[in-house]
Amino acid sequence: MTDIETKPLSALTAGMLRKVHHFALNVQDLAISRHFYGQILGLHELAGEEIPSTLKTLVAEGKVANFVTPDGMVLDLFYEPDLSPPASDPKCQFTRANHLAFDIAPESFDRAVEILKQHNVNLDGDPVSRPTGRGVYFYDPDGFMLEIRCDPEIESA
To answer: In whole angstroms, how large is the CA radius of gyration of the chain?
Structure first.
């Protein structure tokens, strides 16, 4: 037997977790949320053979929609028609999640903000600039806070 087989592990070690596989959100109106994530944010909705076999029945029944980000993370939307937010004011934070951030190229940031405004997406203030880059916070149709952020632009010498 090896040490790993005989000694209990006290914690996962660095590198054991490889990436975020998926993130699941409950949504009140699946059609509105599918439009928001697919048409406004431009995420690819999984269809046909792309749908995980474990979710095919739920997708066929209209209870789940799956999207994938360019880096491969899956966003699952679970239809919960009786869902109500923790508070009617979306600025009141959800109890266990703050926001989900999407990375964007610096040269696309301003255009992304304009697209959100054109679609009357509820922004949480103006875009912010920090030493780590720029970001804009906004809400999905169910009041969950999202962010589009970019690294600082590199100035050419």
So the answer is: 19
- d(Cα 130, Cα 136) in Å, to the nearest integer? 11
Indicate whether 1 belongs to any domain.
Answer: no
Domain that holds residue 56: 18-81
Q: Distance between CA atoms of 101 and 114, rounded to whole angstroms?
A: 17
- In this structure, the answer to whether residues 64 and 110 fall within a common structural domain is no
Q: So what's the pLDDT on residue 9?
A: 62
Encoded tokens for 108:
């696309």
Beta bridge partner(s), residue 145: 139
β partners of residue 130: 133
Q: Is the pTM of this model over 0.85?
A: no
1 has pLDDT over 70? no
Cα dist from 100 to 13, 23, 50, 51, whole Å: 25, 9, 23, 22
Residues 77 and 101 in one domain: no
